[in-house]
Amino acid sequence: MIEKSADVNSVDCDGLGFLETALMAGLDMEGVRLLLVAGADPDLRDDDGDSPRSWVATEGGNGLVDLFASFPPR
Asked: What are phi and psi for residue 17, nearest 5 degrees?
């Protein structure tokens, strides 16, 4: 996806972006990091007002929390 220059901030019909979907699906830490480096917005809100960052705060482990901390809000 990244190599084909896909928009890493595009969303589905529920407003879920690639990053939030990847987190919910259990993508490994390196995959999440690659999405963030490629420009995926950690604060992109879905239709329910949730974001990848809020998901990590409630569902993610310390490694993900630390990773997201290195990508400050825009």
From this structure: -90, 175
Tell me the CA distances in angstroms from 26 to 8, 19, 31, 73, one per residue in order.
17, 11, 10, 22
For residue 18, give every residue at least 6 positions away whose Cβ sits within 8 Å of its Cβ, in sequence order, or none.
Answer: 1, 6, 8, 9, 10, 35, 40
The tens-digit pLDDT sequence of the chain (74 residues) is 888 888 999 999 999 999 999 999 999 999 999 999 999 999 999 999 999 999 999 998 889 999 999 998 87
Question: Residue 71 corresponds to which tokens in the numbers above?
Answer: 């990508």
